[in-house]
Design goal:
Family: Belongs to the cyclin family.
Largest sheet: none
Shape: globular
Number of domains: 2
Distance between the termini: 37 Å
CATH class of the largest domain: Mainly Alpha
Domain Ig-like: 222-299
Organism: Cirrhinus molitorella (mud carp)
CATH superfamily of the largest domain: Cyclin-like
Number of strands: 0
Oligomer: single chain
InterPro entries: Cyclin (IPR039361), Cyclin-like_dom (IPR013763), Cyclin-like_sf (IPR036915), Cyclin_N (IPR006671), Ig-like_dom (IPR007110)
Keywords: Cyclin
Radius of gyration: 20 Å
Number of helices: 14
Strand content: under 5%
């Protein structure tokens, strides 16, 4: 994936940031395609926002089941959104497209020994297509995306910004921004179509801004606020834009925390691991890493 180097010997922050921002625009879903999805009627014939969000939750379920990294999930979502924005696919093909994007992300981000067989992915996801179907679809996806796979995702920006802010804080203040909590929040945002039209860098900044705002009310830390303001200035993000996206993030996280929100369905995957299928899977597949609940801190 795209690595940022911090500490001694690292390139200056401004240089690394410029390199990421230069790539960001080239790996964004086409707005025109996203608008088509957004305006589509739910008649079973066209791709809709609801179907897209459902598929992303399926990918999150698979990520949790296999214990794959956050990088894998974020990249899979990026590939899926970019492909849906350039191709008008029928809903019946969405499961194959989603699983192929996931498989491409797995092969890009995970260690070779952790990559499952395509046939196992199909079994576990209870899909009805074949390995040959996956191979053909994977080729189509890569060709339509011009083989540009290693995208700078919101996760890259989030980790990069978090590291930059931490360098400016003392030991006590560094405990305030919890990267695991922030990454869990980002996964929740990925499950909402709303954020497909927002630049990854702005989404990452908004997550940090919301967290700083919440923590600042509990225990004001001037250095933390100053670091965030400096980051906003480096990105040339207008205050109004940041406030708008920050409110969208807050709304998304509030909805995700309710029982009404449709969360990834791990039970369906657990049901699949039984009998003949269980005997055919590699031993490592039984090590299920669950996505932790987004922790809440009280003042």
């Amino acid at each position: 994936m795209i690595d940022q180097v911090t500490g001694a010997g690292a390139l200056p922050f401004a240089v690394q940031l410029k390199a990421l921002l230069d790539q960001e625009a080239r790996y964004q879903p086409k707005l025109s395609g996203l608008r088509v999805i957004e305006s589509a009627q739910d008649n079973g014939l066209r791709m809709t926002v609801k179907l897209r969000d459902f598929q992303v939750r399926e990918l999150l379920s698979l990520t949790r089941f296999f214990g794959f990294s956050s990088e894998t999930f974020s990249l899979a979502v990026n590939l899926l959104d970019r492909f849906l924005a350039v191709m008008k696919i029928q809903p019946k093909h969405l499961a194959c497209v989603g699983l192929c994007c996931f498989y491409i992300a797995v092969k890009t981000s995970e260690e070779e020994k952790s990559i499952p067989l395509a046939s196992d992915l199909i079994r576990i996801s209870q899909s009805r297509f074949t390995v040959h179907d996956m191979m053909r679809m994977e080729k189509i996806i890569l060709e339509k995306l011009y083989w540009k796979v290693k995208a700078p995702t919101a996760l890259h920006f989030l980790r990069f910004f978090h590291s930059h802010i931490q360098e400016q804080l003392d030991a006590e203040s560094k405990r305030i921004l919890n990267i695991e909590r922030l990454e869990a929040q980002l996964k929740a945002c990925h499950c909402s179509f709303t954020f497909t039209k927002i630049k990854p860098s702005l989404l990452a900044l908004s997550l940090l801004a919301l967290e700083v705002e919440d923590q600042h009310e509990c225990e004001p830390v001037p250095a933390l606020k100053a670091a965030l303001d400096g980051l906003q200035e480096s990105l040339t993000v207008k205050a109004g834009d940041l406030v708008c996206v920050r409110e969208l993030v807050a709304k998304c996280l509030a909805e995700y925390a309710t029982t009404k929100c449709l969360k990834p369905n791990g039970q369906r995957l657990r049901w699949m691991i039984s009998g003949r299928t269980a005997r055919q899977l590699k031993h490592s597949y039984y090590k299920i890493a669950h996505l932790p609940t987004i922790p809440e801190y009280a003042c």
